UniProtKB/TrEMBL annotation:
UniProt organism field: Chryseobacterium indoltheticum
Gene Ontology molecular functions: lyase activity
The name this protein goes by in its record: Predicted lactoylglutathione lyase
Gene3D superfamilies named in the record: 2,3-Dihydroxybiphenyl 1,2-Dioxygenase, domain 1
Alphabetized SUPFAM superfamilies for the sequence: Glyoxalase/Bleomycin resistance protein/Dihydroxybiphenyl dioxygenase
Length: 95
């Protein structure tokens, strides 16, 4: 069975802890760096806006390479997320 979706759940720590017996990482470390490709620049902006309105924080400035647009946020546990839109038809020949 082919799957072309990845689902992400942001859980409260108490509920997340029910999935593991191991300690949960706290916000003073970076445990993961996750990149998510979305379908438009507007979707990049909306996802990062939603994350920061709900307690996430921005950790770098947006990047616009013409063919790729990227914004970032860190979640409450310090995991870093990069949300990007790429238009491969605009990828320079010499990249």
């Amino acid at each position: 069975m082919k799957q072309d979706h990845i689902y992400t759940m942001f859980l409260k720590e108490e509920f997340f802890q029910t999935f593991t017996d191991r300690p949960v990482a706290k916000g003073d470390t970076t445990q993961t760096l996750l990149a998510i490709g979305v379908n438009s620049r507007e979707e990049v902006d909306q996802m990062v806006k939603t994350a920061t309105e709900n307690g996430g924080s921005k950790y770098s400035e947006p990047r616009d390479y013409g063919w790729m647009y990227q914004k970032t946020f860190a979640d409450l546990d310090g995991h870093q997320w990069e949300v990007l839109f790429s238009d491969m038809s605009q990828l320079p020949a010499e990249f």
